[in-house]
Amino acid sequence: MLLFKYDHRSMLVSRGDPIMFCCNISSINATQITWIKGRSYFTHAVSLNQTFSNFSSPRVTIDHNLPTKLSISSAQPEDAGLYTCRVSAVLGFNSMKWNLTVSENPEATHWSWYLVYILTPAIGLLLCGVMSVVCLCRGHWTRTPDEDLDDSNIMTSALYHVQLGGEVRGASANCFVAHLQSYAAYEDKSHRE
């Protein structure tokens, strides 16, 4: 009488994670234990106590003393795929399969999205601030001929009031008056000499 038993599982791990597949099948009366991943295989003949393998990755290891466990030290995308453990006995075999999926490291993905969501608005705000400062300073540094004419009219009016002894009121006018008084005194002094 032949016995066949299959067990299929899926496993999702992140890149760099250690993995251990445990073939939870009784190896009592087992004649052979085999691990298969694509074209790679590991076979342990129990009666001969011999092992044959063509797994080439040093990260994939199978303990010869406990051949029902397969370990991967640091999962990489090339490790993804279907892993099969098959325990053969005189009356049949039992098999377990794992479909391994290796995803990118979630922390690395998290940081990249963090930069996109935080850095973009921060740069935008910085650019808006710089542009505001440039616009304000540009308006202060550059004057149109009309603005120069307005300043000239104010100074003429203030000078007129100072020379005629008229009273000029207001804080800004007082500032002009003080400036113009010193200017008038200078002009008066230069005309006398």
From TrEMBL:
InterPro entries registered for this protein in UniProt: Ig-like_dom, Ig-like_dom_sf, Ig-like_fold, Ig_I-set, Ig_sub
Question: Where would I find the Ig-like domain in this sequence?
Answer: 1-103
Q: Does the keyword Zinc apply?
A: no
Q: Which UniProt keywords apply?
A: Membrane, Transmembrane, Transmembrane helix
Q: Tell me the Pfam families matching this sequence.
A: I-set
- Is Nucleus a UniProt keyword of this protein? no
| The name this protein goes by in its record | Uncharacterized protein LOC103373482 isoform X9
Record organism: Stegastes partitus (bicolor damselfish)
* The organism's taxonomic lineage, starting at the top: Eukaryota, Metazoa, Chordata, Craniata, Vertebrata
